[in-house]
Design brief:
mainly alpha
Length: 63
């Protein structure tokens, strides 16, 4: 399975209050109707606090 596009992922994270934990990102994306591939990829991020969308995108691109 190929990784979802980071731009697609950010669409589902619009409106997140940063800093935010990995689980918070997953919950928010799920509430925005994110597809399973985006949610699965978010769940693979390191379990830490993210200070903004750039930090999420940087990790998202590594996984």
């Amino acid at each position: 399975m190929s990784a979802p596009n980071p731009i697609q992922m950010q669409k589902f994270l619009s409106g997140v209050d940063y800093p935010c934990t990995r689980d918070g990102l997953v919950d928010h994306a799920q509430s925005q109707g994110a597809p399973d591939d985006v949610l699965d990829h978010l769940r693979q991020l390191p379990d830490r606090e993210y200070d903004g969308p750039n930090a999420v995108s940087a990790e998202f691109s590594k996984t």
